[in-house]
Amino acid sequence: MNKPRILIAEDERIVAEDIKRSLERFGYEISAIVASGQAAIKKAKEGNPDLVLMDIVLEGALDGIEAAQEIRNQFKIPVVFLTAYADEHTLLRAKLAEPYGYIMKPFEDRELYAAIEITLSKYETEKKLKQSEQFSSSLLTNAPNPIIVIDPDTSMRYVNPALERLTGFSASEIIGVKAPYPWWTKETLEKTRGDLEEAMSRGVERREELFQKKDGERFWVEITAQPIRENGQLKYCLANSLDITERKRAEETLRESEERYRSLVQSTEDSIYLVDRDCRYLFMNRKYLSRFGLPPHKVIGRPYAEFHSERETREFANRVKEVLKTVNSMSYEYRSERDGGYYIRTVSPVKELDGEIIALTVVSKDITKRKQAEEALIESENRFRELFDHMSSGVAVYEPINDGSDFIITDYNKGGELISKVSREHIVGRSVLEVFPGIKKFGLFEVFQRVWKIGEPEHHPVSLYQDDYLTHWAENYVYKLPSGEIVAVFDDVTERKQVEEEVRKSQEQLRSLADHLESVREEERTTIAREIHDELGQALTGLKMDLSWVAKRIPEDQTGLLERLHSMSELTGTTLKTVQRISTELRPGLLDDLGLVAAIEWQTEEFENRTGIRCTLTVDPEDIMIDEKLSTTVFRVLQETLTNVARHAQATRVQVSLTEKEGILKLRVRDNGKGITKEQISDSQSLGIIGIRERVHQWGGTIKISGRPGKGTTVVVRIPIEEISRKGAKDAK
Q1: Residue 618: beta bridge partners?
Q2: In whole angstroms, what is the distance from residue 231 CA to residue 586 CA?
Q3: By CB atoms within 10 Å of each CB, which of 107, 156, 350, 552 scores lowest?
């Protein structure tokens, strides 16, 4: 344990040396002896002692009291005064330095020792208390979830920064406000008020509430609250919230997905059903329900155990636990005690967007006929051999040699022969490296070595195997036999990969369809905007002129009628402005009449007027002329980007530039806001960013989004317009 280090500030050298000897006998270490206040401050800075013994009367301009104040303010080191002066004025000045002790000269060594020990103990206790307070404050301030403290009269006493970030309301807007709070919604006001009363009386746990942010956006939270009482009286209520908006959206997405695929699931001959983590039925298709002979309401919501034996329930629950643990799908074969049939059951996890498993999909494929055929063969021949040779999956047995540096093929089933396009007679007894030279690159050889050394089964995921003779996609399950041999069970999944490729092509087709729909929507916007502007706008203008004509022909003494006509004229003018605004928002006429540059100039000015965010525009060259549809795309990209700035960036300035150089059209938007994060850029829920990417993609362009915390966000779009022009000329021919 380190000795406490003490700095002695005493102008009488003999007294100082005497104090030093006494302290060293008590086991203390003397960091320095000084005679002036300035020297005491300097040594305190250099040596950082644990305590300062300070004489009040010292050499130099600073006395001990002034030096003690500086040491306390700068270095937070405890000070004990040593002095022969006890007058009231000196004591009052000494108190201002907040000393930890005050020892009158002359003093006994034991008095000095006791004062030092008490001071060190008191200082350490205060330091730990302060650290504890700072730690508690830091926990609340940096807690990721919103935390609030509510007084008995529902006044808001405290909110942490997480609540400010979630709701958009600052602490100054919330502290002192009584219920209903500004983030409560009108439609759930009574429910939320009742939940608050319950929370303040006996507490609530994981109570879901619908709230709204300052900008009107709705969000869901899960609240746990506890009343804190003192002597039986409510002191305050502490509430912690968890943002579950994404989970609620995932639940809604899951519901919609179920509707889309329900018809497909219902038409299959396989039994398909959905269970929760506790093995309760959430859904089942008609095929599976027919095996129960019961109406749906008698089964849905009921536990698996009510309809199956204890053995079946235990086996199924174990499989579910394994899937929940590994987060991987599992397929296994089982026999139903209900109908005696054999099935291949595949249990797969259903995940939320954050990866949490919320349910499990089970697909049971009826393989009863195949099993009956297998059993007939087993009865007539060796059980193991027939099972081995008639598996649809490939099965190979290997014997390790040379301490696992190679493996010799000792058996190979017929399924493996078909998959690997080899003959068992020609490969048994040969090295796996010789028969399958691509196995190391395939990654399976390392799996063999690990399973042989560790003994734990391992799954080698779907991968592409290639050598001069064989090319296919395969999946392997490898385990170790008690004999030390290695068994690999594998399947050819080439057809499945081909199906995945078809899915990819289908996605490309869907993207093309989406591009077409966007084009149709833009045309409809243009048509509607033109109709509103030309027809409704002209009609309203004519109506306003007619009202003016009538007003001029009414006698001045008809004040009531004139006032009514004036009111009608103002209402007509307001309606006309609204029609013009709606028409412009649907499709700015400038875009069609004067082109992209004029439309962008209007958009940036309108953005600045609407949001108050300063927006500057640079165009080079000033007469950029491009394809009409491309102009629409660039304009919509700018609109969406500026919308995101207004909603999320918290910016005060935006710079927009549109340039065309060497056949590349470049749109650059930069703000000085809080800066977008990488997670926000890649978030699948960032629909605005996804929409921008899709718009740019259809023109063969690229988009780069970057952000720096506190420095702002930059969006750069590049589109090759030379290639577009050549394509347009070719189409014209």
Answers
A1: 657
A2: 64
A3: 552
Domain 591-732 belongs in CATH node 3.40.190.10: no
Amino acid identity for residue 293 in this structure: G
431 contacts 442 by C-beta, under 8 angstroms:
no
Nearest to 76 by CA among 103, 101, 45: 45
In the chain, where the domains are located? 5-140, 143-243, 256-371, 381-492, 498-584, 591-732
Distance between CA atoms of residues 397 and 189, nearest Å: 68
Neighbours of 712 (CB within 10 A): 22
- 199-241 pLDDT, tens digit per residue, is 989 988 888 899 999 999 999 999 999 998 988 889 999 888 8
Euclidean distance between CA atoms 97 and 65, whole angstroms: 6
Question: Which numeric CATH code is attached to 381-492?
Answer: 3.30.450.20
Query: Which of 367, 449, 434 is closest to 400 using CA atoms?
Result: 449
For the domain bounded by 143-243, which CATH number is listed? 3.30.450.20
Q: Is 230 helix (H, G, I), strand (E, B) or coil?
A: strand
Q: What is the pLDDT of residue 133?
A: 62
Domain 256-371: what homologous superfamily? PAS domain (3.30.450.20)
Average pLDDT for 428-442: 93
344-350 long-range contacts (CB < 8 A, ≥24 apart) are 345/319, 347/319, 347/320, 347/323, 348/323, 349/323, 349/324, 350/254, 350/274
